[in-house]
Design goal:
By secondary structure, this protein is mainly alpha-helical. It has one domain (3-305). It contains eleven helices and two strands. Strands 1-2 form a two-stranded antiparallel ribbon. The N and C termini lie far apart (45 Å).
């Protein structure tokens, strides 16, 4: 592993350490103003990292044929794609927390540990995706069709499937005992001499598996922008690092973004078409950035100007979790 990869992992580890053990040592419910402040901080870090990308690719620290300007544009485009698709993930996480009635003060803890699993699984999926695209040109068409299918599916109302029907959750409940009540912020406890999982751990596993499912859409979408593994991974991870604070902002305003789903579907469709036409259509890198930013901004603007009545998920409370 090259020094730049090791340095990036160290950078992410420092950010996570500061987040959990310094900035958020005590479990609490972030106020909207606090969540906005942290969202601004994570966004600044994500966008500011483009400066490092410029230096790294401009000085040859990364073995790549991309120029510094191309690398920055691809990074920012990938970051924007993952950040926008994370908005859809927020909707699902809000439903999971509401279903399991996760106490609001412990939700940040679940999201934090969910990030660690996301880093591991996304690294594997990104390296596998880059490997396939480098060696099999027809995989561009497979990923393109997958994105078009995902875009079509996103425009339709999904059937509500109870999280308890998730096969991973069923497996956990068969293998280990699960308590019926929360025990503070603990994922595991000892009950009559036997280690038992708490509902907080079940919610964590649900968030984790949901992130993997969403990554099946978001990673091919970023690979449609660039196949540079470092740009794909760094833009992906820095975008989801801000997902926790973004959740506490958007989960309270879900009814205000009714048309964002359409924007996300159009973004997936655009990247899917771009991948399918990769041999005949060679648009400049900045075109993707402008189109994706325009679609996302348009969806947010229409949602704010013409709010549609939607049912927002119930705010999680201190009530006992579902059995």
């Amino acid at each position: 592993m090259s020094a730049i990869w090791i340095g990036f992992f160290c950078f992410v580890a420092i950010l996570l350490f500061l987040d959990l053990f310094v900035l958020n040592r005590k479990d609490h419910v972030p106020r909207t103003s606090e969540a906005l402040k942290w969202t601004a901080m994570w966004t600044t870090i994500g966008l500011g990292f483009s400066g490092f990308v410029y230096l790294a690719y401009g000085n040859g620290w990364v073995d790549s044929e991309l120029t510094a300007n191309q690398a920055v544009i691809n990074y920012l485009t990938g970051y924007l794609v993952e950040l926008s698709l994370s908005m859809d993930n927020v909707f699902v996480i809000a439903l999971i927390f509401a279903y399991f009635r996760v106490p609001a003060m412990y939700q940040h803890r679940v999201l934090f540990w969910g990030i660690l699993g996301a880093i591991f699984f996304r690294l594997i999926m990104i390296l596998a995706g880059v490997y396939l695209l480098d060696r099999f040109d027809w995989m561009f068409y497979v990923f393109g069709l997958l994105l078009l299918y995902s875009a079509l599916k996103m425009t339709k109302d999904a059937e509500d499937v109870p999280p308890s029907e998730n096969p991973v959750i069923k497996f956990i409940k068969r293998v280990v005992p699960v308590t019926k009540h929360y025990h503070g912020n603990r994922f595991w406890i000892k009950k009559r001499g036997v280690r038992a999982a708490t509902p907080l751990f079940i919610a964590l596993m649900m968030v984790e598996t949901t992130d993997v499912i969403f990554a099946i859409d978001s990673i091919p979408a970023i690979l449609g922008i660039t196949t540079d593994s470092f740009l794909v991974f760094s833009s992906n991870i820095l975008a989801i690092l801000g997902l926790r604070s973004l959740y506490f902002v958007l989960s309270r305003m879900l009814d205000k973004f009714a048309y964002v789903k359409i924007s996300l579907a159009l973004i997936l469709a655009f990247v899917g078409i771009k991948m399918i036409l990769h041999e005949v259509w060679h648009a400049p890198d900045w075109v993707s950035l402008v189109v994706i930013f325009g679609l996302l901004a348009g969806g947010i603007a229409v949602s704010l100007l013409r709010p549609a009545p939607v049912d927002a998920p119930v705010d999680p409370t201190e009530n006992p979790p579902r059995p």
